[in-house]
Sequence to fold (576 residues):
Amino acid sequence: MKSTSEHLFSRGKTGNFYVRRRIPTAILSAYPTGKAEIIRSLRTSDKREATKRLRLEEVRIDAKFAAHLLSLKERNDALKLSHVKSLTDEQICGLAKYWAHRVLLRDEQVRQKGMDEDEFDEHGEVLSQQRTELGKLLARGHVKPILPAMFGFMHLCGIDAELSAEAAHKAGYIFLESVVKTLDHQLARQAGNAINTDVVAPEVPDPAKIGIETSTGSGWDEVFNSWQGYVSDRPKSTVIGYQTPWGQLKTFAADLNLKGPAELTPKHISAFVSGMKQAGLEVPTINGRILKLREIFKIAVGRELLQRNPVENTLGFKASKKEKGEKKRLPFTLQDIDVLFGSSVFTEHLRSSGQAGEASYWIPLMMFYTGARPEEIAGLELSDIQRDEKLGWRFVITDLIDGDDCLFDDESGSEKDAPEKRLLKNNASRRQIPIANELIELGLLRYVEWVHGQHSTRLFPTLSKDFHGKLGGAFSKWFGRYKTELGFTSPKKVLYSLRHNMKDLLEAAKIPTKPLKRILGHASGDGTITDGYGSGVPFDVIHEEFSKIKFPAIPALPWQPGVGYWRKEKRNPATK
Fold:
């Protein structure tokens, strides 16, 4: 299908035009599962005529969307529940009177329509049986059997009550007493007595409007801030990751006229999850968002901002075998490695024209020779490069809260170059990785001395945090542009692919599972204590296993400070 303008497409040999509109997330549940778009033929191959017909067809589609949204809102209003904190005796009596009026009114309507002899006898028998059984329960004060009926009736009235055992017993007794009195009135009618409904059970207001104290719960921002504040100083990237599904859920609820998170029910959440699936989100993404929402609501309930967690029992999706078999990222081939490390950044000493600077050269190489994550490398301090007298040089990857001692005793860096606060992905990420001889031969230690001469404590002082709080954010974007210009167009071959290359090298060297996981910063499966920094697999074992890796030769030349920019049109005139 070929796009000619927004919402207008042509396809087929005749070039017929079609209108295509994405179904809004809020009304996806009104359409068959998997349907995310509306496609209709405009029955013409003339673009001018198609443009005219497009306007009319879009009006029809918008009208249909509006009708579905209204229908869903009406259905949602019917599902809205007031969450009851407590009930007074007067409120319970009001509920019981409302029930009695409804039952007697219905009984009156049935009799007015007329009953044949069999229907009359059967009706009388049912009433007599109920009166005997319920009268006995009332006489004994045994109200438990009536509670399901009472709570069910409250639910139909739009009230969701969570009463203590004592409060439920008291409400049940008052309700049971009203039920028995109502049966007496019905039996009196059955005996031929004139019973006026408005006299014995006058009409009373809707129970949801008779002053029952309800809680609509806290607002969206208050609930989210409660989650954010539960752990002090959450990384900005984590907060943004949780804001995404929370914001989408808020929009979804607003489309259904829900006033706050307290009005969400499990059915709403299920519809929201189905909407994500129909919108084309991948299974791991959907399941991850469900977990995030569940955690936000769990903390809100724990802090008594909300009464219930509507996501508590929400199910996600299981990926098919085909989906599990498809890798999101692929390692670079040996030919790819030659192209990457034989390019201008690594052989002509050209650099990014942005903040990446010397990181353009070092981060890809360090990922290739360590398997570390981009952000772990971007946040390294000079003090994280240490030498063991017996085992040689190593990277120490750990959290950094207040900054550690610098590698150099006479360090006097500026405030700008002061150590950045660094929080790793998880406990298992804290680890030590041997520095490959290849990195030293490429000039890593010379680079460290050079950075020290720039009066910085950070390995890559030109990097600054992006909107998500990531030091490597801008670098990753630069690498994406760079690898594209080198001819890597596959979305599965990205900066992270170098980490996959290390995994393949570890497996090729037949490194045992536990050392392999420790090198990559993955949990061993032995628990959080074993996976913590300084425990688990000793560094001498890691070093021994790491030495078995056979790195392929690469065409990169030893490091020297950059001499120009990788894009000719952005070269610094001073370097020409």
User: Anything to note?
Assistant: The chain is about 50% helix and 10% strand. The chain has a mean pLDDT of 80. The longest helix spans residues 47-79. Residues 415 and 485 are 37 Å apart (CA to CA).
